[in-house]
Write a structure and sequence with these properties.
104 residues, mainly alpha, single chain
Amino acid sequence: MSLEAIETVVRAENECKARKAAAEQEAKERIAQAEKDGPALLERMRAASVQEGKRLLRDAEERAEKQCAAIREDAAKECEALIKQAESHMSAAAERIVGKVVKQ
């Protein structure tokens, strides 16, 4: 092998070693940055989850309140109908009671 070829191989090996060292250093830096950023990101995600949970709870409570209002309204209408029905039978019931009392 000629001296030039040996020098070329040595240069290529040195470049590969330098690239490998740079890649290893970059990987270490990325890992360190991820370890540094991880807790803050986790805390942000937790806070966002809490806020989303509160929003979902608020929405559910609003829907439940609307359903309760509709149920109360329906129940009030049914009560009014029952009262009217009872009132319409009141005179007949009173006559029947009076009739039974008078017969005795």
